[in-house]
Amino acid sequence: LKGQELRDVEFDVTVTVNGPEAVYEFEPVNWSGSYYIDIYSEREYLYLPEGDTPSEECCQGVVENWLQLINQYMASGYSGEQLINLMCLKGKDSYSHVLLADTRYMMSFYAIDLIDGIPQVVSRPYLVHFKTEPVETSDMTFDVAVTNVYTRVADVRVTPSNNNDPYTAALIPTSDIPDVSNEQDIINWYVATYQASGFRGEIISHLNSLSPETGYTLLVFGYYGGVITTPLTRVDFTTEPEGECENSVVRVDFM
User: Fold this and answer.
1) CB atoms < 10 A from the CB of 25, how many?
2) Is the separation of the CB atoms in 196 and 98 below 8 Å?
């Protein structure tokens, strides 16, 4: 559909913000079919400041971007009906996730309908704006132990001083880490290179797929909503070299 053919839809939306976490509750007001939601931060080019109305060019861009995405999935064997069921929502719904702290966001709702067997955008975007809250630094500390280190295995335990604040823990080959002495540079490198995990409470893990005679580094630091909240805790260790098997075949019985 072209921009001027798109209908207007409205949604009843409530966004509850707690730090970088946002909880969304929403329900269509004048649309009973399927719909899709995009969320853009103020750092993304598709973000529109609060009060701005999507132009016809913007609406057409939404239509074309959606069709491009759908065509990729349909080329992989999905039917239009399958994609609507997998990707879209219907009726009243809610969900939550953690975003970047202290950042403006825009939710974009648009109605989706199956036309000629293809899911298509049939409405102008309905926009909702909100802003996440800042995240403070934490006084959380970590007790980290790496034990029973052998050729390919090791046991790891990370115990934070509290079970409430989120943190990241990552095992990386030491050779991959930049050769810098500033721990802040190491953290910055990690969050720019990897998707930071989010843990709470104690971690106990048995690693069983390590490489022999290889240096590894365990990095642990507080991290929430894109904000580094504690200093870095780092533990380095090296697995043992691979030795020859000392077992011997004494007898073979053929049945």
Assistant:
1) 14
2) no
How confident is the model over 111-160, as pLDDT tens digits?
A: 999 999 999 999 999 999 999 999 999 999 999 999 999 999 999 999 99
Cβ-defined contacts of 144-147 (< 8 Å, 24+): 144/218, 144/220, 144/233, 144/235, 145/235, 146/218, 146/235, 146/237
How far apart CA 27 and CA 90 sit, in angstroms, is: 8
* Burial class of 120 by CB neighbour count within 10 A (0 to 12, 13 to 18, 19+): middle
Beta strands in the chain (DSSP E): 11-18, 21-28, 34-41, 89-90, 93-98, 104-115, 118-121, 126-131, 142-147, 154-160, 167-173, 203-207, 215-224, 227-228, 233-238
Nearest to 91 by CA among 15, 8, 12, 14: 12
State pLDDT tens for residues 60-82.
Answer: 888 999 999 999 999 999 999 99
Residue 87's closest CA among 116, 118, 123?
Answer: 118
* Nearest residue to 187 (alpha-carbon basis) of 217, 159, 153: 217
Give first-to-last CA distance, the chain, whole Å.
73
pTM for the complete prediction?
0.83
Angstrom distance (rounded) from CA 184 to CA 157: 23
